[in-house]
Write a structure and sequence with these properties.
With 182 residues, the protein is mainly β. It has a single domain, classed as Pectate Lyase C-like. The chain is 7% helix and 43% strand. The model has no long low-confidence stretch (mean pLDDT 95).
């Protein structure tokens, strides 16, 4: 999807494959804005672009919301490159989400978010698999692979609901909801 706008909701969705573009490119969605919401969704493909490139969403802005979602694909970009979002801007929010894929870019590169001008709550990225360390406290929390996988995820990923929403596995947590649509 290119644009999710004006209070629209994308829920229980999944995307994989190779996504390539120039600007505002994400594994599931290009732009999420104006009170639009993504929840209980994920992507695991290869995402390539130049500006605002994210594993799940390229640009999240104007009170766009991302809840209980994740990305574990590879992300290559130029500026504003992140494992989950390329840019989180203008009162946008990420809550209870994570990223674990390899991230590569030139400027404003982060394991979870490339350029951070919005809120990040109880969200994480794997510092080892993404290759991205902690830049500042506003970007979420970087954890090691062992801290984010198996039963350790339940201890370290504070705020995640491991009873009703997330399930631990030998690898990274997955969403419990069986209604995910591909």
């Amino acid at each position: 999807m290119g644009l999710n706008d004006n209070h629209a909701i994308i829920e229980n969705s999944y995307a994989s494959g190779t996504i390539e573009g120039t600007e505002n490119v994400g594994g599931l969605l290009g732009i999420n804005k104006n009170h639009a919401t993504i929840r209980k969704s994920y992507s695991d493909g290869l995402v390539i672009g130049d500006l605002n490139i994210g594993g799940l969403i390229g640009l999240n802005r104007q009170r766009g919301n991302v809840y209980t979602s994740y990305a574990n694909g590879t992300v290559y970009g130029g500026d504003n490159v992140g494992g989950l979002l390329g840019e989180n801007d203008n009162n946008a929010m990420i809550n209870n989400s994570y990223a674990s894929g390899t991230i590569s870019g030139n400027t404003n590169v982060g394991g979870l978010v490339g350029n951070i001008n919005g809120d990040v709550i109880n969200s994480y990225w794997d510092v080892e698999s993404t290759g991205q360390g902690q830049r500042d406290s506003d970007e979420g929390t970087g954890l090691t692979t062992s801290e984010m996988t198996g039963d350790n995820a339940e201890t370290n990923m504070v705020g995640f609901d491991f009873n009703d929403t997330w399930n631990t596995t030998d690898m990274y947590p997955i969403l419990i909801d069986n209604n995910i649509v591909e």
